[in-house]
Amino acid sequence: MSFSGKYQLQSQENFESFMKAIGLPEELIQKGKDIKSVTEIVQNGKHFKFTITAGSKVIQNEFTVGEESELETMTGEKVKTVVQLEGNNKLVTTFKNIKSVTELNGDIITNVSWCSEPVASRA
């Protein structure tokens, strides 16, 4: 199954609480909470390139499944992590105390992230 495509944010749950938990300043949370971000994914075998555009903020991350890579988080911090593929439709990674699962079902991609508490879900 190919993750390649462009996906627009449709809904989110617990986003503000999650952003507070990971240390994003309140001003940025309020500014960004209603922005409908767009995620573009290009997959070439085990290599992925994610481009997330939320208003004027753009985050680009590239990684190869199973290999250590440096990714930029929503707070702008760079972290080293390994992304794993579970089954043929889930990308899973853990960094610091955050776990992130990105799941593809048909033409809908869902990301669930948690940092102990609370859990944030975006589709």
Automatic annotation (TrEMBL):
This is Fatty acid-binding protein, liver. The keyword Repressor does not apply. Its main location: cytoplasm. It comes from Macaca fascicularis (Crab-eating macaque). Binds free fatty acids and their coenzyme A derivatives, bilirubin, and some other small molecules in the cytoplasm. Involved in intracellular lipid transport. Residues 5-22 form the Cytosolic fatty-acid binding proteins domain. Keywords: Cytoplasm, Lipid-binding, Transport. One of its GO terms (biological process) is fatty acid transport. SUPFAM superfamilies: Lipocalins. It is found in: Cytoplasm. Pfam families: Lipocalin_7. The gene is FABP1. CDD domains: FABP1.
